[in-house]
Each structure stands twice: as C-alpha cells, then as structure tokens.
Amino acid sequence: MLWCGVPPDEMKEELGRTISHPNIRGVFTHPFIPCFEVRCRIIHDAIESRTLPASRENGKVIDEHIAPDRRHVSREHLKAWIAKEHPADKPAFLFDEIERKTHAAINADAFRALQVDRDAVLTELEKAKAWRADTNCEMDALRGECNSLRAMVNRANTPSERSERTHLNIIGGLLALMLGKSPAGNPQSVFENQGAIISAMLGHYGGIKGMGCSNLEKIMAEANKTLKDSAISGG
Description:
The protein is mainly alpha-helical. 58% of the residues lie in helices and 2% in strands.
C-alpha cells in the first residue's frame, strides 16, 4: 500500500477497506486503489521466485517456502529489489528525491557527484556573468572618455569665430588688392575679375579638397562681405 502512494498516517484506515482475494493467501484488493492487488501479487511472486529475500517473524532470511501470511521483507531487501526490477517506479517511502530522479544506470553517489560538478560549473558561470558585467561597465566608461576626447579634438580643430573672421578679412584683402589698381591707375594683377581668379585656382589646385568652384565662390563672397563689414565697424 505504501508502494501505491498511500501516506503512512492513512494506512490503518485504508487497510480496513481491503478484501482478501479468494483462493490466494496474502493478496488483497481495495475498492479505490487498483494497484494494491497488483503490487501484492508482484511481491509474493518475487518472494516465491527467490528474487526478493524474505523471512518469518524472527527476521532471519531463509531459502525455503514461507506461508504468505507469515512473510516478512526487510526495508533494505525491498529497496534493492525495486531498484533492480522496477527502477522506473521507486516509491517515496524507500527512495529519496535524488534516488527517484536518478536513472537506473546511475547510482545516487554518481548523481550527487554530477550535481557537485554542475554546481561548480554554475558558480563559474555566475563569475563569468559578473566579469562580463564589469567589463561592459569599463567599456562604457572608455567609450564615454573616447567620445569626450573626440569632442575636445573637434573643438580644437574648429577655428574660433574671431580666427575665422581674421582669415576671411585676409582673403578679402588679397582679393581687393588683386582686382584693384595702383594710385597711377594701373591694374595690380593680371586678373580682371573674381571669376578669373577662381578659374586660375581651379587650374592649379582643382584636385585639392575644398578647392571646388562653388566653395571658392562661397568663401570669396563671405570674405568680401566680412572685409567690408570690418572696414565699416573699424575692427
């Protein structure tokens, strides 16, 4: 009945409902526990075939016939027999949780050893996760520092408004000189207009970055305006 999963504190009550099987001593039936009769038959068959050691009331195992109502089986022998003959049906009253979950080909000690190895691997995994988290934090900090340095470099390479205005004034002044005339009325360069200057620059430096026609026109226009504004404001 314990093998059928009946709790020990309910054994007495459930045994009171059993009915002795006619013509088969030691085999009982239960109206609500179908496996009870089957288990009775299996145990008696095992005792009679000598695969399950049994004794009489004195507990001494003997290799001779024992009347069904006098058969006694030790916990140790019953556990060993079930583990061998019915490894997929280990009752909780004989086997602990690990033993019930362990495959028949693996004993409890081997299973516990595997659990220790598994726990060690899980510990290492947790350490690896912690290391990855720390590494990610360090990488994020380095990325932040890198972005900060990049911004500093970009600011350093970008001319200030005052510096840019000075450069435009210089360009505007050179353009004015090249396109202007001397006090005697003579041209100060061979260039008749700004377009001629741009054409010459394209001919000599057209392959250099920033020396495109539209960019040159834009810069010269800004230079002329900046020089004019500076002349008016006196700075």
